[in-house]
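User: These chains co-purify. Model them together.
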Amino acid sequence: MANLKEPAARSYGQYCGLARAWDLVGDRWNLLIVRELLPGPLRFNELTTSLAGIATNLLTERLRALEAGGVVERRLGDRGILYALTPWGAELHTPMEALGRWAAPLLMSGRGADSFQPRWLVLALPALLHDVTCTATTEVGFNVEGLLIVLRIDESGPTAAIDPDQPPTTVLTAGPDVVVGLVAGGLTVEQAVAAGELTGDIEALHAAFTDERRL
Amino acid sequence: MANLKEPAARSYGQYCGLARAWDLVGDRWNLLIVRELLPGPLRFNELTTSLAGIATNLLTERLRALEAGGVVERRLGDRGILYALTPWGAELHTPMEALGRWAAPLLMSGRGADSFQPRWLVLALPALLHDVTCTATTEVGFNVEGLLIVLRIDESGPTAAIDPDQPPTTVLTAGPDVVVGLVAGGLTVEQAVAAGELTGDIEALHAAFTDERRL
DNA sequence: CCGCATCCTCATGGATACTG
DNA sequence: CAGTATCCATGAGGATGCGG
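Assistant: Joint model of the four components:
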């Protein structure tokens, strides 16, 4: 039975780009859904587990709204439905990275009891390292909770990706607190190594970056 | 009687910069309040009228939350209380401008029945003109609904301000639709002039910008 | 299992009236 | 002017059901 509830579309009614963007992606969970899809398409259930706490009906409604707004698209994958960003939706990467950078001070208090997904580092690493300069193109892998996140810095700045075809030679293993601490500048490599929470090719890590950020 | 409702602080509970930023500024109206304060401090009533539609209790609650989060601060001005952004709050300018730029396609449908405040152009103009190059430092004033918005483009990019001490020599008069149309590239200067909706020193306007954006 | 749809409860948002 | 207090509508969160 088709009893689709109209989402009411409560709009700010303002002739302003920010307000109109907000009408589209400002509802609760929306930006976090986009964040999940930034590294690549996901299935419905992968979204529910990664977002831990969202009600399934809400996720359905939000995905529909984002699809109607041209931010998200459904694809029929091999084993079911895949949700992916449209090209325009993927361009949200820029403002979201800027917002992640603004929020750096909020990460200094540490993880606490919060949930964490290695996937989120794909947005966070480039955001936090935005001002890092690099003498040559550099790739460093972070093995976080079994998932390989590869950070790449070249002249156009830092980017990150999940499980690329070509793994980098330098791979470090560490938990989220250590990775964020290192990247946000609140922790030195020496401190992390001394605590036994950072393992891997430390020399290569030192060589990879300038001393500016102590990484 | 002190019957202050505890805002409950419903958090996403995620160790992620974006999520924590959202816990702080993601509630309804929050980012629009910040947008209002970007060009300069305002009083409570100025916020209620400019945001047209926000309930006074909500505005109170949001201002308190933003103050507690270190984004907004209260100042005691000459004639009452002024709300202003903290230095960190003002840094939201960068992600908000990026979001405004992302939302450019949403402005192409025109104003419609939406409300409008010239103040909003302080964010919108630099956002939409982000990729405009300029041979020399240029200042152009837009007189919109009686308020003078001054756009300045130099080698570090475009910025805008309200009613500066030193008004520019080139001042144009136009409504919001025309200004946005010109700046977003959906309208040529000739079209705007032909419609009688753009008046002022058009020659200077032509000379001020490159032909790239037809402005 | 996966991808939803329905139902229920309670927190949040919105409009209006009122006050120091 | 700068908020409070109050009431009602809406939206979020959680549990459950159900066809494929």
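The radius of gyration of chain A is 19 Å.
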